[in-house]
Amino acid sequence: MKGFLASFVFCSITIFFTASAAAQGIKWHPGHYVMFSTDDSTSQILRNIEEIGAETSIKGVQVRIRWCDLETAKGVYDFSAIDAYLAKLRAQPTRKQLVVRIIDRDFNATSTAGIVPSYLLSSTYNGGLVRSKTGYVARLWEQSVMDRLMALHTAIGRRYDGDTRFEGLATEETTLALSQPFPAGYSNAALGAQYTRLVTAVRAAMPSSNFFLYTNWIGSASVMDGLMQSLMTTRGAAGGSNAVPGTKSLGQQVWTGDFGADYRLLLALSSSVETGELRDYTPRQINDWAYNTLRVHHMFWVRNTWTGDASRRWDTGILPFLRTNPPIRTRCPGSYGVCIR
Fold it and tell me: Architecture of 2-340 per CATH?
């Protein structure tokens, strides 16, 4: 398997670099970002942006917004919150970038309300959602549902690609956390194919912004490697929802070369830092792992105010650590060709 993956990757790379010479440059502001919680209000996030406005070691913010809050009816979009965040970021004394992460699930939901637009809950979309192990998630392996998520991403991309403070879009995890037996029609390959469609559509809509696909799990190394290939050819970015020292997700295994080709000089790479790893590791331990092993370019640190001791909380642990300017990879990835700083 290793030999096949390596050969396939490097053949693809050769073809890619031939075509990439004239490719449009992509915004490139690697570094440490603060990530806000999904349920944080717009007003709270605006206050928190102002609080980090003078922090030179923080490159920007990641805001997580539910799909239903961005698409209020079919094809009807409300981007007022994104506009407000960009305006607030521009008003800060040091440059700050915005990453928008679209949330298409709820890990702790007992109801289908408040996750996806209500029209998706109809029979036309097979109910739009499916029960996951702990909540509900959009039926993203089905083309009709993915078509609507692609439309949202495309609308955001077209609106904000020309904004220099808009760093890009991020997805939720590739895994849907489904229990077995899987729902009718689901397969890892079918889900991977729909993510590839999403990546392609997003790049067409926003050619100069980053697109972070959160490649954590998808059932098989071959399907995950196919996603890495699609990110290579479209100049997308691989990401992860966690950076746990000593433990790699499937996506991290693939991009670090555990199954063949090593993508770490070729792909733009990112990782979020969630409360799970902060319960067991200090910010420095997490960053050392992300820098030395995962070699990520963008780190999204949760603004943790509720988990762990003082060394793991935002004000008393994470922010003081970030003020030390911890190292992060900044080299323009090979697949991007041209990075706009």
Answer: Alpha-Beta Barrel (3.20)
